[in-house]
Design a protein that fits this description.
- This protein has helices at about 20-40, 55-80, 80-105, 120-145, 160-180, 200-225, 230-250, 260-400, 405-430, 430-435, 440-455, 470-490, 530-540, 565-585, and strands spanning about 190, 200, 455-460, 495-500, 505-515, 545-550, 555-560.
- By secondary structure, the chain is of the alpha+beta class.
- It has two domains: about 10-300, Rhopdopsin 7-helix transmembrane proteins (Up-down Bundle), CATH 1.20.1070; about 435-585, Histidine kinase-like ATPase, C-terminal domain (Heat Shock Protein 90).
- The strands form two sheets. A five-stranded mixed sheet has the order 3-4-5-7-6, covered by helices on one side. A two-stranded antiparallel sheet has the order 1-2.
- α4 (about 120-145) packs parallel to α6 (about 200-225) and α7 (about 230-250) runs antiparallel to α8.
- The radius of gyration is 64 Å and the shape is rod-shaped.
Length: about 575
């Protein structure tokens, strides 16, 4: 009972009344009102004195009030509503006060009653009894919607509050008993005349008017403090029965044991029973719902157990499949890893083969260049000199024999042979590249291009005294030569530009023309190896070639050739050495 329920609206103190509850309450109030109206004309009819009626009736009232208080305390332990605790304390107070009223009632246990009772002790205890309960209902009505009605989360705050409520009810009931017995002289008399046929005094009328007003105010409080719960609804019924009890006991009856006396006590018993009956029915309903919940929980537990078994089986099957799949994936990964290793080996072997092919191609190119150099040197130094000497000897012979006119064609043929020999030697290997360096060879190549094709060509070299070692020098010259040959044969250009720039770690050669251009995506013609030759030349020295061209916008060829580390480091030192003499002149 220390834990809060997940749905507190199942209790009468929080459950809003439905149409059926409202109709039942209205029917009960109407029945009690009809009974009140029917009995009112006969209230003063004297009936037989049944002394056993008093202990039986008040014992029933005490039991009903105690049971109701116990049920309310039980709900307070769950909901922690101070309004419920106050109402339970009120029911305990009525039970304790009714007990004192029973013990002091004259003629039940003694002629004057126990506890030192006197003639009007029970009359004042009745006033205290029926005046305190409306006050409790008023307090309940004001507390049920305020902050005091909120639930308390502390487990330890419940028991002390319950004990305090019980102690308060007991102390107030003792105070009422002491005031009605020991303080008898302090209270004004309510009755006058003989005990069996007393007459009501003015104090009696005032006191019962006050009690009735409190009951009406309690009913108004319950009606005003919305929203209503089922407990509020039945407390209204109780207050109505309480008003009927007060009316019969203090206004309509004439003396003890008349019809009003008996009917008033019956209304008092009904007022004590209504909430108890409803709460008992509520407990029965809760127990029924609890049994249903337990049965549902049992069925659900069996279903969950079955599903758990199925889930465990599915989990085991899944784990088996996962293990099988993991094993398969492990084998596949192992095969893939082996394949990757083999592919890396093949790539390494392929790269090694490429390096060997590049080395062989470089060696072949170098050998071819050396052979071209040798042949060009022999053609220039030997064949050209021989042809020139032969022409001179022929001129001498022609002058001595007077055969100048006859030998003129032979002179022309010898001149053409000398020119052709020099051109062939230059095409094989320009000697200026070996004798004067790359810049002079590039300048000779540009001049020769202008003379052959009539195309304006500009050469830009930075720095102006650029010099490269082999095989980079030969590769740059051959790329220039091949590029200009392609421009002269295919570009139909009017202008070309060669830009040769040295950077820290590479050489950048850019050849541009304003020719017709071409589509890079078009497959090359059969037996056309111009661009492939450029790439092959650059590849032999680890260079890169990029070509940009489109129809009608000319062509741009950029060649980037890396320099060896030693050559790249030596160039700044050479530039510094060249700069020192000029510094000294300054």
């Amino acid at each position: 009972m220390n834990e809060l329920t997940t749905d507190s609206r199942v209790f009468l103190s929080t459950l809003p009344p439905g149409r059926r509850e409202r109709r039942l309450a209205i029917v009960v109030v109407l029945m009690t009102a009809i009974a009140f109206i029917s009995a009112t004309p006969f209230a003063k009819i004297q009936l037989p004195r049944v002394w056993a009626f008093i202990p039986v009736y008040e014992s029933a009232v005490v039991v009903c009030d105690l049971l109701t208080a116990a049920l309310l305390i039980g709900q307070y332990r769950i909901l922690r509503s101070k309004a419920l605790l106050v109402l339970a304390t009120g029911y305990l107070l009525t039970a304790f006060t009714a007990t004192v009223h029973l013990l002091t009632f004259p003629g039940v246990f003694s002629d004057t009653g126990w506890l030192g009772a006197r003639s009007q002790t029970t009359a004042w205890l009745y006033v205290f009894w029926h005046g305190s309960f409306p006050l409790v209902v008023i307090a309940y009505g004001w507390l049920k919607r305020g902050g005091a009605a909120t639930r308390t989360s502390r487990d330890g705050a419940c028991a002390p509050a319950i004990v305090a409520g019980i102690a308060f009810a007991a102390l107030v009931a003792c105070a009422f008993a002491i005031l009605a017995t020991r303080g008898y002289d302090l209270l004004p008399p309510q009755l006058s005349g003989p005990p069996l046929a007393p007459r009501y005094t003015v104090a009696h009328g005032v006191v019962f008017a006050l009690i009735g007003s409190l009951a009406l105010f309690a009913l108004a409080t319950l009606l005003w403090r919305r929203p209503h719960s089922v407990l509020d609804l039945w407390l209204m019924v109780v207050v109505c029965a309480w008003l009927f009890d007060i009316s019969f006991a203090g206004v309509l009856n004439h003396s003890r044991f008349d019809l009003g006396f008996y009917v008033g006590r019956i209304y008092s018993l009904c007022a004590a029973s209504f909430v108890l009956i409803i709460m008992t029915l509520e407990n029965i309903n809760l127990y029924a719902r609890l049994v249903q919940a337990l049965e549902s929980e049992s069925v659900e537990r069996r279903r969950v157990q079955l599903q758990t078994i199925q889930l465990n089986e599915a989990n085991a099957l899944l784990e088996h499949r996962v293990a099988s799949r993991t094993a398969a994936l492990t084998a596949a990964n192992r095969d893939l890893l082996n394949e990757v290793i083999e592919r890396k080996r093949a790539e390494a072997a392929l790269e090694h083969s490429r390096e060997e092919l590049r080395e062989l191609a470089s060696i072949g190119t170098s050998a071819r260049e050396q052979e071209n150099r040798r042949i060009a040197r022999e053609l220039h130094d030997e064949l050209c000199q021989t042809l020139a000497a032969s022409r001179l000897e022929l001129e001498l012979v022609a002058e001595r024999k007077s055969l100048v006119a006859e030998l003129a064609p032979v002179h022309a043929l010898l001149d053409e042979a000398v020119v052709a020999t020099r051109r062939i030697a230059a095409d094989l290997r320009p000697l200026v590249l070996d004798d004067l360096g790359l810049v002079a060879a590039a300048d000779w190549l540009v001049q020769n291009f202008r003379q052959r094709h009539g195309i304006e060509c500009e050469l830009i070299v930075e720095p102006a005294n650029l010099d490269l070692e082999e095989p980079q020098a030969t590769a740059v010259f051959r790329i220039m030569q091949e590029s200009l040959t392609n421009i002269g044969r295919h570009a139909h250009a009017s202008r070309a530009t060669l830009s040769l720039t040295r950077h820290n770690d590479h050489i950048l050669l850019i050849v541009k023309d304003n020719g017709i251009g071409f589509d890079l995506s078009t497959p090359r013609k059969l037996n056309s190896f111009g661009l492939s030759g450029l790439r092959e030349r650059a590849y032999l020295v680890a260079g890169e070639v990029s070509i940009e061209s489109s129809p009608g916008y000319g062509t741009s060829i950029a060649v980037r050739i890396p320099l060896p580390v030693a050559q790249a480091a030596a160039e700044p030192d050479a530039a510094l050495l060249r700069a020192e003499p000029s510094t000294e002149k300054r």
